[in-house]
Amino acid sequence: MQLFEVLGVSPRVDEEYRESIKTLAGWIKIIFCSLFPSLEPEWLETTIIPTSISGAMIANAHQWVLDGFQTPVDDIVSQSMEMFMAIGNHYQNLHQHRSEK
After folding, report:
1. Where on the tree of life does the source sit, at the highest rank (predicted)?
2. At how many degrees (to 10) do helices 73-100 and 49-66 cross?
3. How far apart are CA 21 and CA 8, in angstroms?
């Protein structure tokens, strides 16, 4: 996966970048289905949330590199997991409330 965006270099590089983001979003969908069972796989296929989380994770990685890897990797991982879990819990609660109505 390309860490830094290289869009516009060539159509081939653009396609590789889009495929990398799509792959990361796919992994996020799988993890969300496992951790948050009330989220329907169909919803995850139609929402932009997995792609948005992918972008946030890449932005975190960018900052970590640009800061010279000063933040311990364990801190990066735990803070990323906090973000991931907060978003997942939010949507799980939202879906549970909708299904109760």
Report:
1. Bacteria
2. 160
3. 16
